[in-house]
Amino acid sequence: MIEDKNQQKTQLSDLGEFGLIDHLTKNFKINHKSTIKSIGDDAAVLDFKDKKIVVTTDLLVEGVHFDLSYMPLKHLGYKSVIVNLSDIFAMNAKATQITVSIAVSNRFPLEALEDLYAGIETAAKIYNIDVVGGDTTSSTTGLLISVTAIGEVENNNEVYREGAKPSDLLVVTGDLGAAYMGLQVLEREKEVYKVNPNSQPDLEAYSYIIERQLKPEARKDIIKLLKDLDVKPSSMIDISDGLSSEIIHLCKHSKVGCDLYEEKIPLDPQVISTCEEFNIDSTTVALNGGEDYELLFTISQDDYSKIKANPNFTVIGYMKEAQAGMHLVTRADTKIPIKAQGWKNFNA
Amino acid sequence: MIEDKNQQKTQLSDLGEFGLIDHLTKNFKINHKSTIKSIGDDAAVLDFKDKKIVVTTDLLVEGVHFDLSYMPLKHLGYKSVIVNLSDIFAMNAKATQITVSIAVSNRFPLEALEDLYAGIETAAKIYNIDVVGGDTTSSTTGLLISVTAIGEVENNNEVYREGAKPSDLLVVTGDLGAAYMGLQVLEREKEVYKVNPNSQPDLEAYSYIIERQLKPEARKDIIKLLKDLDVKPSSMIDISDGLSSEIIHLCKHSKVGCDLYEEKIPLDPQVISTCEEFNIDSTTVALNGGEDYELLFTISQDDYSKIKANPNFTVIGYMKEAQAGMHLVTRADTKIPIKAQGWKNFNA
To answer: Do the Cβ atoms of B93 and A43 come within 8 Å?
Structure first.
């Protein structure tokens, strides 16, 4: 038999709004005692007893935050959850619930939204999150996803961007710059594909950095680890816009300065080799690339012994008095002011 | 002096994302003790002690939910808050915080977003809500607003869509159909304007219905009133999609049937006269028009004496056993099954 390449697709209009929500969310399970009422009423009802609640929201727009020519919808659904959970973890909190709203044009068949929700469901399962609400609507063009994440934290355990003190150590989890370099590879492949749609790309050598771009993870494990190590950071933020931008946030909110050591910035070997291939400075990528979803935090020097042996953590600098300013100390031992100039202007 | 009609507009790119959020939210004040940390960190932190929390979210898309040719941006900002608060009140809860995310194309100058946020700020002030977070991003086309609202309710005071019992009375607040007829007038004026841009519309006769469309209110007052009257509804929902659709939701969730009396449906005289002018059946408008943001609820017959003298409430029917079905009892005393067919098919 000849394969039917034009499989029947289901039009969204066949289901209607209520039918669509029911269909897409029917597999979502409730796991948290705090979720009293989930999808299906005017609002969700949550009960956190005597804990504090943290709330964050992010909007992902097609053509701005993602390109469906290389971002599979399942990965997009997964990533849209991750970017929000990362903000909850950056408060030293446990993520418990999300709401997911999407606006979608009628160029997407039902099967596309099923893929998107499969990714959302996978993230919800892995991170143990209840999906408790949302809204599904049509858009005149493109796809847009709005996620709100809710979490809980024991009183006095919450960590803000403010709170860092001079002489505190600046610590980062994981490694930096990979998501940005993954994007560069994907965009190069897209250009190659445009010229020759039959080309078969071999992306084996870029597997780590592409995964960091298409299927990032949020550092839930770090929140547990910090608790187990009995370390409460003095300030914390997640790295979504790039190390420079996040350091500036911590310093401004905490009213301190900072020395960041270039040689200490953790880079994966694949980031280094791909930067060489693209003739891009790897430090610049780490500082300005963004989308790493690692955690950046400060701790008292007294806590150094608790984290020093752990491979998840790299001490990359220390905080100073505000008037000392924020500087990158280069390998050549020169000091360059840290600015959030964005990618293009950084070397200007 | 000749008036300068080309006032200098500020491009969004001049401010950058962080500057834009700071600029637009600098006037927002915090009024709730439960708001521990607001805009400016990875997430907001809220503390509700021993109350339950309710959460709802809605997405408003240009070209789908609003038309900027007759919807002023300030009103749009106001309405985007109202539609969410209405869902919180429909849980018998108090609204306390919102997050607001917008995606906006670069055809909007800063001044347009200032108008939008002025409307959001006005709604926040009038309804005593703290704006605690959000996201501002670019879009490739048009404007999109995503609002998440959070509220609190004393334990056991929450009211769901389920809970109505046979013989319970069906009660609605205010009057119905006005927002839909306001939209019809505005769309007619838009067509007139296209033909003759110099026409000066006289909309005096439609002031109430246009206000219901452009600047709706949510029934915060009803939640207080029900408490003062010591009435806890057995089920409740807000009227966003039209009376038919909401009755079906209550009946399905509560596993009951319903008789709705056509002659009891509350209509404003302006709705009746405009329906006559447009040659549309006013009952059909009330049943299917939507965007009324009134509350629809059921109460035990024992509570009837508490609400009967109050002009805010109209008893429009009563609940029956599920097998009796859901019916509209017409003025001619015939029974028509209630269906959520949407506007166009209702008379088919």
So the answer is: yes
Q: Is position B292 annotated in a ligand binding site?
A: no
For an interface test with A, give the residue of B17, B25, B37, B41 to mutate (most A CBs within 10 A). B41
Model pLDDT for residues A80-131, shown as the tens digit of each residue: 999 999 999 999 999 999 999 999 988 888 889 999 999 999 999 999 999 9
Cβ distance of A61 and B135 shorter than 8 Å: no
CA nearest to A50 within chain B: B49
Q: Which of B39, B55, B130, B295 to mutate to test the interface with A (most CBs of A within 10 A)?
A: B55
- B136-169 pLDDT, tens digit per residue, is 888 887 899 999 999 999 989 999 999 999 999 9
For residue B187, which of B305, B93, B278, B51 has the smallest C-alpha distance? B278
Structural domains of chain B ordered from first start: 15-153 (3.30.1330.10), 169-337 (3.90.650.10)
Question: Looking at CA atoms only, how far is residue B5 from chain A in angstroms?
Answer: 31
Cβ–Cβ gap A40/B133 under 8 Å:
no
Whole-complex ipTM: 0.87
Contact A64 B103 (CB under 8 A): yes
Alpha-carbon gap: B251 to the closest alpha carbon of chain A (Å): 13
Residue A238, annotated as binding a ligand: yes
